[in-house]
Design a protein that fits this description.
alpha/beta, Rossmann fold, five-stranded parallel beta sheet, 9 helices, 49% helix
Length: 222
């Protein structure tokens, strides 16, 4: 509780999990429930549109990473960096400072809004980049590996090798799980997932002394 304003500080939740676990879906559902959603992936896309960042990337990897419109071809860039760990680390060194600054800007904007009572950070590299340090709670989104791989094949067209390369670029799933305050299983239907999230938020809001639970989802985009 903010004693000066009498308002409860928003609860900041970070989402973690293996690739294809459904973190983005969980983020969207929490957004429907009234959460302020910060998506690092969108901030990453924004970073690639910055002229100074684009220049650094072209200097390192050449004009071949540009599409016909002169923008960064994310698929081509991913093909390079996920096949060579040192190149991935170079990319992160270039784009992560921008993403970190923007993430903190978004967070401060949310915290300054008296109507915001829940902030959700969806970031694939939440732990690896240290962004979890701004979170009050960490939620691990769980799903079997074979299901996660199948999801990425269906939604992103990735081969098993592409999925494995990206999985290898992050901390092991079991290592991530150790940081979690709660586990949400995303292996069934959306209704079951919603119920888990509603139960978890009701528990956390009651435990943390918030006055009222979040409103139930209203259907939204799903």
């Amino acid at each position: 509780m903010d004693k000066a304003s009498g308002q409860s500080k928003p609860l900041v939740i970070g989402l973690i999990g293996g690739i294809g676990s459904g973190k983005s879906l969980v983020g969207r559902l929490l957004g429907e429930m009234g959460g302020y959603l910060i998506e690092a992936d969108k901030l990453g896309h924004e970073a690639l549109r910055q002229p100074q960042i684009r220049q650094q990337l072209v200097q390192r990897w050449g004009q071949e990473i540009l599409n016909p419109q002169g923008e960064i071809d994310r698929a081509r860039l991913a093909e390079i960096v996920f096949s060579q760990p040192q190149e991935r680390r170079a990319l992160e060194a270039i784009v992560h400072p921008y993403i970190t600054d923007r993430l903190h800007q978004e967070l401060q904007q949310a915290l300054a809004n008296p109507t915001v009572r829940l902030v959700v950070i969806d970031a694939a590299l939440l732990l690896e980049a240290g962004w979890h340090r701004v979170c009050d709670k960490i939620v691990f989104v769980d799903a079997p590996a074979e299901l996660r791989q199948a999801r990425t094949q269906q939604s992103r067209g990735w081969s098993a090798a592409q999925w494995q390369a990206r999985e290898a670029a992050q901390w092991p799933v079991e290592e991530k799980r150790r940081f979690a305050d709660a586990l949400i299983v995303n292996a069934g239907d959306i209704a079951a997932l919603r119920r888990q999230l509603q139960d978890l938020l009701a528990k956390w809001f009651a435990t943390d002394g918030h006055e009222n639970p979040l409103p139930p989802p209203t259907g939204g985009v799903l």
